[in-house]
Amino acid sequence: MTVLAGLCALVALIPLASVVFQAATLGGPVLSISFLTQNPPLPCTPQPGIPCATGGVGSAIQGTLILVGLATAISVPVGLGAAIYAVEFRSRFLGLAISFTADVLTGVPSIIAGVFIYAYFVIYDPSIVFSTITGALALSVIMIPIVTRTCEEALRTVPHAVREAALALGISRWRTTLQIVVTTALPAIVTGILLSVMRASGEAAPLLFTAFGSRLGFQGFNNPINALPLLIYNFAESPYHNWIDLAWGAALILIILILITSVISRLVVQRMVHRMQGG
Amino acid sequence: MGSTKVKVDHVSAYYGKNRAISDVSVEFEDRKVSAIIGPSGCGKSTLIRCLNRMHETLPRTRIEGRILLDGEDILELDPVHVRRRIGMVFQKPNPFVTMSIYDNVSVALRFNGRHSRDEIDRAVVRSLQQAALWEEVKDRVDAPALSLSGGQQQRLCIARALAAEPEVLLMDEPCSALDPIATTKIESLVNELKNTYTVIIVTHNMQQAARVADNTAFLYLGKLIEVGPTEDLFERPKERLTEQYITGRFG
Questions:
Q1: In the predicted model, is pLDDT for residue B1 greater than 70?
Q2: A169 assigned to some structural domain
Q3: Which of A155, B63, B76, B216 is 20 to 30 A away from residue B239, measured at CA?
Q4: Domain count, chain A
């Protein structure tokens, strides 16, 4: 039985290990400082005597940071606010509606988020259909339900005694919620937010017809912008060698970025918990 | 009899349709310790939770009657202001886990109104002294509240309530989660506090009521059975139910 379980664990590890291995072996060699800072070059297949420009994925890294940053700025207030409403203000019907909607939205394929934003802007403001703004909005459609759900769970873990203690001191309802309950649940809330950040930074589908992609760096909020998953999607299936190399490098960078986020979130949460218990 | 600080006037309290307190009228004297005793489920906690309007923070609850604080009906006032005048200590120590000892004690001052750093510092020291915790924590007021023992945490909660400078201090079985040594400390503390505050303490422990309270009220099934000076109630009970309860025949 133990042997069987061990084998299953190994089989489960194979896809993960091979993904990391593949990205590291094919993406590793192209990594360099200029890879991180330069923009993607024009497509090129090497011919004798004519070397190809290697370029880098600078615009994609920049774009991913801007898009995910904006989407976080949108989804954290909305998601946390919805969770506070559902948990702290005990409005039965709306509370249930919020949880249910968030659950359904979490399961919606991410491309739907892109189509939704695309269609909305095609109708109401076609001039910015392909832009940083729509890209960030599409990502926040992915992030809001995750933030809402995790914040709800986080707030529910705060014992009722904490709220009572604050209210009994004559602290108003709002201050109790924002400065006592939310701070008590902060480690779990931060974890939830970073979870949604990791999810959003890996999404290509919602960006296909919103952020659209661009070889250039940030050109303003009303113009298309690049992102790592978009670059991987566009370049990996191209016939050009220098683009394919960039796609592998970008894949490795994306994995590293997500790994860093995950490590940071663990450290932050550990420190918060540690500080509370004063170990 | 001294002057009345809190007057409960024909109060009934409900959880949904269930009436937990029926038509209770009782007066609590200024700067005295009053105990409320009775078996579990008799409504003693509900009664004191009405006094600072914590009862209504639970869903589908309701209070009828009048509760007068210095002659003013608190049911007509803003509950937030009522709670600043009537502090409360709960059964289980419930310090704010994210905060240091200092921040716990100063929380009411920091959140309610403007106070200078100096005022807050002095209030923290004064409250910790009043709660007999100062000597134990004076070198580590910035340590997390959770680094204290259970008994210390409960005294921290008392200090936190006192820092808000309430007129009345409600204590809902404050020793039920504590060991005998910590209990003794809290009891002698209650004796000190009555010089400054009106203390109303709920307890299921009759010896504790006998030790700390000037007056005692006996509650049974949501009704007030008897109230009077503690000595009289324990030695010369007027009601048969009281006598049966204090001699341990039920409860």
A1: no
A2: yes
A3: B63
A4: 1
* ipTM entry: 0.90
Task: Nearest by CB to A277, from B83, B146, B164: name it.
Answer: B146
Residue A198, domain CATH: 1.10.3720.10
Answer yes or no: is pLDDT of A101 > 60: yes
- Give residue A162's domain range: 57-278
Q: What is the pLDDT of residues B74-112, one digit of tens each?
A: 999 999 999 999 999 999 999 998 899 999 999 999 988
The closest CB to that of A278, out of B54, B87, B143, belongs to B143
Considering only CA atoms, which of A155, A186, A274, A161 is closest in space to residue B153?
A161
Å between B194 CA and nearest CA of chain A: 19
Of B87, B98, B160, the CB nearest to A183: B98
Quickly tell me which residue has 């934003």 as its tokens: A117
Gap from B232 CA to chain A (nearest CA, Å): 33
B98 vs A168: CB contact, 8 Å cut-off? no
Which candidate, A265, A245, A267, places its Cα nearest to that of A257?
A265
Residues of A in contact with B160 (CB under 8 A): 165, 169
Tell me how far apart the alpha carbons of residues A197 and A47 are, in angstroms, rounded to a whole number: 41
Size of interface A-B (CB pairs under 8 A): 77
Q: Answer whether B144 sits within 8 Å of A183, measured CB to CB.
A: no
Helices (H), chain A: 2-27, 33-37, 58-88, 92-107, 110-124, 132-156, 160-168, 173-175, 182-184, 186-201, 228-236, 241-277
- Residue A201 falls inside a structural domain: yes
Instruction: For residue A160, tell me if it sits in a domain.
Output: yes
Q: Is B160–A275 a contact, with Cβ atoms under 8 angstroms apart?
A: no
Other beta carbons less than 10 A from residue A94's beta carbon: 13
C-alpha span between B138 and B101 (Å, rounded):
10
Residues in chain B closer than 8 A to A165 (CB atoms): 90, 94-96, 157, 160
pTM of the model: 0.85
Chain A residues within an 8 Å CB radius of B85 = 170
